[in-house]
Amino acid sequence: MASSLLRSLVNRSRSRSSSVGAALSTRNYSLVSNQISNHTAKWMQDTSKKSPMELINEIPPVKVEGRIVACEGDTDPALGHPIEFICLDLKEPAVCKYCGLRYVQAHHH
Description:
By secondary structure, the chain is α+β, with helices and mostly antiparallel strands.
């Protein structure tokens, strides 16, 4: 009984996956690009406000004593991002890929 039930479930999933694959290959993604451009336009229409990148660039680089910094984006883990360990061996500020904060070694500057 269990093996016949398992066979019927496997056969049903195979028939569904082939029809889903055909539907995905013919899907029209033009609506997605319209949504993305509308979302981007929202940030571009009011030039009196600063963009998120402009706001984060106003924060001066954080000076750190060691060679490696662990960036979490915020002191509250619920508001931050996944931890990223950033190497500070270069003289230029290192940038966190999640939040854009910049870090430099204290003795370089």
